[in-house]
Amino acid sequence: MTYPPTPDQSGQGGFQYDPYGSQPGSQPQQPGYSPQPQQPGYSQPQQPGYGAAPQLPPAAPGYPPAYGAPGYGPPQPKNGMGTTSLVLGIIGLVTAWIPGVACFGWIMCILAVIFGGIGISNANKGLATNKNVAVTGLVLGIAAFALGIIITLAVWGSIFSMGTASTF
User: Fold this and answer.
1) % the chain with pLDDT above 70
2) pLDDT tens for residues 139-158?
3) If you ran DSSP here, which 8-state letter would residue 11 be given?
4) What are the Low complexity biased-composition ranges (predicted)?
């Protein structure tokens, strides 16, 4: 690989390659030669370093903060009704089909459906952010209630069928 020749500063008429682009200290110093005249009391200008990041001006009232403003993140999810619906739907799913506590489970399922509907309504109005949690609680409440009713009817049906089968 060849590089274009640069004029030799030694005054001998040859060419010398300078890979560093004539930066100070890149070429050997010759006695009595100074590439730049030095004035007393002056030195090389220093490159400014990286200082602190510039501070953003405060946002005007009624407007959102500027992009990248410190201290602001994505909006936090807020949907208490949806979260309550989800928790009650899980409790209802666990307890709605157990014969001794089925009534407690059914109440939890009904409350999960009510709170899930309110959570979905709030999310549609823009008052809540995580609509999916409310939908999940609503679906769990409905499924757990239906499962509890089906299992209870099956248990009662088997009890009554055993009672009638023994009379033959």
Assistant:
1) 52
2) 999 999 999 888 888 888 88
3) S
4) 19-54
Report d(CA 77, CA 71) in Å as an integer.
Answer: 17
pLDDT score at 102: 83
| Cα dihedral 15→17→20→23 (10° resolution) | -20
Nearest to 120 by CA among 109, 131, 133: 131
Residue 142 near residue 115, CB atoms below 8 Å: no
- On whether residue 103 sits in a domain, the answer given is yes
* d(C-alpha 86, C-alpha 136), whole Å: 6
Instruction: Determine the Cα angle at 151 with ends 148 and 152, to 5°.
Output: 80
Does residue 137 lie in a domain region? yes
The type of residue at 10 is S
Distance CA 26, CA 24 (A): 6
**Tokens matching residue 50:** 């990286």
Residue numbers in the chain where pLDDT is lower than 70: 1-59, 64-77, 163-168
**What's the total number of domains in the chain?**
1
Q: Element (H or E) spanning 155, and its range?
A: helix 131-165
> Residues 6 or more apart from 35 whose CB is under 8 A from it?
24
What is the domain extent for residue 122?
A: 80-159
